[in-house]
Design goal:
Strand 2 and strand 3 form a beta hairpin. The protein is globular and about 50 Å long. The protein is built from three helices and four strands. With 105 residues, it is of the alpha+beta class. It starts with a strand and ends in a 13-residue tail after the last strand.
Length: 105
């Protein structure tokens, strides 16, 4: 399962500032059962727009982590608020199908 967010960096700030906060929070969150990693992707035509993807084994495990208030994570997220706007895109299940190119020999 994937949780996906769109991050817009505010004027006068950088994606690297947000990435620093993302990594610090993720290092804590990734200790939770079911956490499978996080990624940030820059938009090709706008380096101040990012897609943040958090992967989990199940929605229930993600919900359980959210239900456990962690003051360190809350503070990191609060510290990033002045320099970005975050819009949740949504939660997505693992793909029902995957289309890959044929193997090249």
């Amino acid at each position: 399962m994937k949780y996906i967010f769109e991050v817009h960096i505010k004027d006068g700030h950088t994606a690297e500032e947000y990435a620093d906060a993302w990594v610090r929070a993720s290092e804590i969150i990734q200790r939770a059962p079911g956490a499978r990693g996080t990624r940030l992707h820059r938009k090709l035509d706008d380096p101040n727009v990012l897609i943040a993807i958090a992967s989990w084994d199940t929605k229930a495990q993600r919900d359980a982590m959210e239900g456990q208030h962690n003051p360190d994570v809350a503070e990191i997220i609060r510290s990033a608020a002045p320099f970005c706007d975050i819009r949740p895109i949504g939660a997505f299940d693992e793909p029902e199908w995957v289309v890959l190119p044929p193997e090249q020999s």
